[in-house]
Design goal:
globular, Endonuclease I-creI, 4-stranded antiparallel β-sheet
Length: about 250
């Protein structure tokens, strides 16, 4: 199978937020995220799908029962490309992985990681509650952290291989669950300015919900938590002072 950069990123997006169904021979591909991610789907994801699969029409839709926004396709030939790579139908569970064709190519790895992060990853900034730090470090969320989480052990191992190949440092955590029917959570944490800048230069961020957090940090040296996309956009154009989210003594 020929892999394009677009297809590698689409695979990462699907692994992050996608779902496939096959019912009575009818194939369905469904990818959606938070309603705040409408711009990401309309201006980026849909363009990727149109280019890769030569689609003339594809529109974003709001899935009201689950309060998400994304795309839905009923194209057997598209679903088959995913299925032929071992992407599971129905619940993805432990069967998720990064195809070997991607793991063998650093350019494809970068695009897959971007797609996965943009949909299922997170970026946030921490402050230092105690210790020998300045007032700024104790009161402002300045320390960058990227998080990649999955319940698939195989995907967890493949993500580590992908990051190792790009020389991005990380730490790992496994949260064991005791509840019957629940699955362990495998977490990868990428910490600090140096590793974040590696991520930006090699992989990048396309989702505005996440990219605006980085842009605020890059501009002001910190990024307040619990803000909306609209608030962050106003911060970036100077209509809101990011310090106003803090109650300094």
């Amino acid at each position: 199978m020929k892999f394009t950069m677009e297809f590698a990123e689409i695979l990462g997006i699907h692994v992050g937020d996608g779902y496939m169904r096959v019912r009575g021979g009818h194939h369905e591909l469904d990818i959606s995220g938070n309603l705040e991610e409408k711009e990401f789907y309309d201006k980026h994801v849909i363009k990727l799908f149109k280019k890769e699969f030569s689609l003339e029409y594809l529109n974003g839709i709001e899935f009201q029962p689950r309060n998400t926004y994304g795309i839905k396709l009923y194209k057997k030939h598209i679903c088959k490309r995913f299925i032929d790579l071992g992407i599971p139908i129905g619940k993805k569970g432990d069967n998720l992985c990064i195809p070997t064709q991607i793991l063998g190519d650093s350019k494809l790895i970068r695009r897959f990681l971007r797609g996965f992060f943009d949909t299922d990853g997170s970026i946030y900034f921490a402050k230092r509650a105690s210790g020998d730090y300045t007032k700024f470090h104790k009161t402002r969320h300045y320390h960058p952290r990227i998080s990649l989480d999955t319940t698939s052990r195989k995907l967890f191992e493949d993500l580590k291989k992908a990051l190792d190949s790009l020389n991005i440092n990380y730490s790992t955590y496994i949260r064991r669950v005791k509840n019957e029917g629940w699955k362990d959570n495998f977490s990868i944490r990428i910490n600090g300015k140096i590793q974040l800048m590696k991520w930006i230069s090699m992989i990048g961020i396309k989702n505005p919900v996440k990219r605006t957090r980085y842009e605020i940090w890059n501009k002001f040296g910190f990024c307040p938590p619990h803000t909306t996309l609209k608030q962050r956009e106003k911060i970036l154009i100077g209509r809101i002072d990011p310090n106003s989210f803090y109650k300094d003594p």
